[in-house]
Design brief:
Elements lengths: L4 H7 L3 E3 L1 E5 L7 E5 L12 H10 L11 H7 L20 E3 L2 H14 L9 E6 L6 E6 L4 E3 L3 E3 L16 E3 L8 E7 L9 E6 L2 E7 L4 E7 L6 H9 L11 E4 L3 E3 L3 E2 L2 E3 L5 E2 L7 H15 L7 H27 L7 H8 L4 H13 L12 H10 L16 H21 L3 H8 L14
Parallel strand pairs: 2-11, 8-17
Antiparallel strand pairs: 1-4, 2-3, 5-6, 6-7, 9-15, 10-13, 10-14, 11-12, 12-13, 15-18, 16-17
Length: 448
């Protein structure tokens, strides 16, 4: 959209995000990071993790995180955008955002309305279908107004007001693989330091998120209601906040899965109406964005045909199933033994697509990206190794390097990333300079 990034971060009271920290997933007391972007450098066409595995077999205890600039910077609370620095990691530094979702929605609404988008607000009480084609002709609001269109986008959330109720799009339930079905959320006061990463911590029957914003910290406890009650989940969350809660906890109920067909007749479901994969890797807004892009690519010039619908649904199914597998990996490869929930997900049957990926990696360290799936090779490697899915072997070309040369090479990379990270500004200082939240929104007693 050509948004000014500083203005976007400022207006959504956002912060920058270099990755996700996972606490107690591999085992109680163990932490790893899933940073954005690559780690190390591929050599002779062989992925970096093969060289790291070879060095690890020689007794070197270096953490894989040490070879990712975003991970090193995140641990030190540093951040900067990419800079012109030649062929170095500083030139391609990958990052994302934390932001207040309500402020983000308001920001985009204002952007759209300034450019002529007309918002008609009202409760849909009836849907009129064409008797011959089955297309939706119009929707009727409680006011009596009827709104006609050639194409409808269903953003009505889990209800699927158009895609399901009149058009019967169907729903594919993934709860047997992703059994968490509740989240309790509460904001709390901001505390220092303002870290540039999301933190996720396992709990007895689920996990807790911590998202630092400029004006507050967002917290939530995702859990399985078969193993713990909503009251217990709320108590656990409130007992593990870093600051004073600033609102009452609210519970969100959901069912993981996807719509069997996201585009039916002349209705396209986008957002929660098309499906939901829990928030562990922060994929929901990304999936909305890719759905919008996909619809724009396939937007029909005239009458809607099966060709557009089928291609849209095929690509949506592929994207959602690959994200599903990546999320299941976190649960299935957990090392939190002795809790009924964690023992259950560690021993459950997993999708065949994930079985194959894990088997290949365990056998030889091989990992491949399927088409344009969201998570790339470094992401899969980081989570697998972070949660103790360690290959038995590695690419044979890695054996060509002598121990001394291999150690020197990896030490050089780690030291280079450390030097780059300590030269970066503090994350809070960077925000204060480039994208501080509006002064009228600064909480009493806080500094901008």
């Amino acid at each position: 959209l050509g948004l000014d990034e500083n203005d976007f971060v400022r207006q959504t009271q956002g912060t920058f995000k270099l990755g996700i920290q996972f606490v107690d997933w591999a085992a109680i007391g163990r932490t790893y990071l899933h940073p954005f972007g690559p780690f190390g450098t591929d050599i002779k066409g062989v992925s970096f993790h093969a060289w790291w595995l070879k060095l690890r077999s020689l007794g070197e205890p270096a953490d894989l995180d040490d070879y990712s600039l975003p991970a090193v910077a995140a641990r030190k609370g540093r951040f900067m955008r990419p800079v012109q620095a030649g062929n170095t990691p500083l030139a391609t530094l990958s990052y994302a955002f934390h932001f207040d979702a309500m402020l983000y929605a308001r920001y985009l609404r204002n952007y759209a309305e300034k450019r002529g988008v007309v918002r008609t607000e009202g409760k849909v009480v009836d849907v009129q279908l064409d008797g011959e084609s089955g297309f939706i002709q119009s929707v009727q609001l409680a006011s009596g107004e009827r709104i006609q269109a050639d194409l409808f986008i269903d953003c009505s959330g889990f209800r699927g007001l158009l895609i399901e109720q009149p058009l019967k799009g169907g729903y594919e339930n993934w709860t047997h693989w992703l059994p968490c079905d509740r989240a309790v959320a509460v904001p709390c006061e901001r505390v220092e330091p303002l870290v540039p990463y999301t933190r996720t911590m396992t709990r007895r029957a689920g996990w807790q998120w911590r998202i630092p914003l400029q004006h507050r910290i967002g917290n939530g406890h995702v859990f399985c209601s078969r193993h713990i009650s909503e009251d217990e989940a709320a108590s656990i969350l409130l007992a593990n906040l870093d600051g004073e809660a600033t609102a009452d906890p609210r519970t969100i109920r959901f069912q993981t899965g996807k719509r069997r067909r996201a585009w039916v007749r002349n209705v396209v479901a986008i957002g929660l109406s098309s499906g939901f994969i829990e928030p562990l890797e922060s994929t929901s807004i990304h999936v909305i964005q890719t759905a919008v892009n996909r619809l724009l690519e396939l937007l029909p010039r005239g009458a809607i045909t099966d060709a557009e619908r089928d291609e849209y649904n095929r690509r949506t199914d592929f994207e959602m199933s690959r994200i599903r597998d990546f999320i299941i990996l976190h649960y299935h490869a957990n090392g939190r033994e002795g809790d009924a929930f964690w023992d259950e997900v560690r021993t459950m049957e997993i999708p065949e697509t994930l079985q194959r990926k894990m088997a290949l990696f365990r056998s030889s360290g091989g990992i491949f990206r399927d088409g344009d799936e969201l998570f790339d090779i470094p992401g899969w490697v980081q989570v697998m190794i972070g949660q103790n899915v360690i290959p038995e072997r590695w690419h044979p070309i890695a054996d060509q390097a002598s121990e001394d040369k291999l150690k020197l090479f990896l030490d050089t990379i780690a030291q280079s990333y450390l030097r780059d990270a300590v030269r970066m500004p503090d994350h809070a200082a960077y925000l204060s300079r480039f994208a501080p939240m509006p002064l009228e929104d600064v909480p009493a007693g806080a500094s901008a």
